[in-house]
Amino acid sequence: MTQIQITAGGKPVGEPVSTTPLNLVYKSPNMHEELGYPDCVSVDSQAAMYHAERVVQPHVLTMDAMKYVFGEGLPSPLSNGGFGVKHLFGMLDLTFKFIDTVNVPVVMKYPETGLHPAAAVKLGDIVIALMQYQQTKKWALPTSQ
Question: Cis ω on the peptide bond leading into residue 38 (within 30° of 0)?
Fold first, then answer.
């Protein structure tokens, strides 16, 4: 387990937090500053979209995860997809690549952005599978959708 200090506006918020393979952080509606996660790799919408538009070789598991979330609705090529498709593609691809290359916690900021509620529900399975993948390097998704 790793200890991280969450910040807001560059100042510490509360006590350091022990991270586990899966951490959900919710910002108070009264907090206007963006939360920071020092010593973590943070994948936000801007990074996800930038990556999605430029990736040449996706991680071997990215398309498996995308097919799980979107099923037959996954556009081909992905460049024909809307914001939610491109956003999730970039976010998942970056997350897989960081898990495989960097030994630090990965923070996915708002991965559900732009997704239909049904896709957002399946994203929950992906997040759990990512947590397991980060621990074991074994990729497994639920078999029944």
Answer: no
